[in-house]
Amino acid sequence: HLLTMRMGIKGEADDDYGVYWELYNSGNWIKETIESQLLNDPGEKMRYNTFQTHLLSAIITKATQQSTLDFAREVLFKSMKIDIDSWEQDPQGYYFGGNSMHFTPREIAVLGYLYLNNGRLSDMQILPIDWIELSLSPSTNKEHPNEWGAWKNYNYAYLWWLGQINEYDLFMGYGYGGQFVVVFPSINLIVVSTAKHQISPETSTVQEWAIFDIIAKYVLPSIND
To answer: Of 57, 124, 161, 185, which cross-links 68 as Cys (Cβ 3.0–4.6 Å)?
Structure first.
């Protein structure tokens, strides 16, 4: 349920990010997230809440007996020939599973390419093909509008967003304000964007829609020119 945002707790869209800051300022992110009131039975409905992915970071730490950063470096980053520049930790020292991971645009593009190429980089199978297929399969029964600017028919998989821009199917790593890696498999295209993130939800929407608009009006049409 954590991979598909179906834990059942309040989502950030339910109260204009109020729940995000409530958990962030709580002093114990994991405890407060686990003890959050359930609005739905687990698995019943998707409600996006960043701290569900933070629980995944804590689970990785407990299961591997090493920090999420060390695990990621050992299992992923070394083979991908990338590294993380900085990563926020919670008050108990767990790395923030939800955000605040600082990559360069080129580094995050490598992640997009890893999934575009079915988990394979430089003749090395880093992730199983079955996992790639499963993690990019629609998994939600959400109740949301079916478009967000130029991004249409969107859905959620395992921490990846799905949908279309223009006629092209996509999967996307989606960050607040426009920190995006957007992958269009049918045309082997990866688009990475970064943007100012210390902004209001209203400004975040404006920035995100502007980036999708640029992709729809300029980037994708240029592929056929």
So the answer is: 57
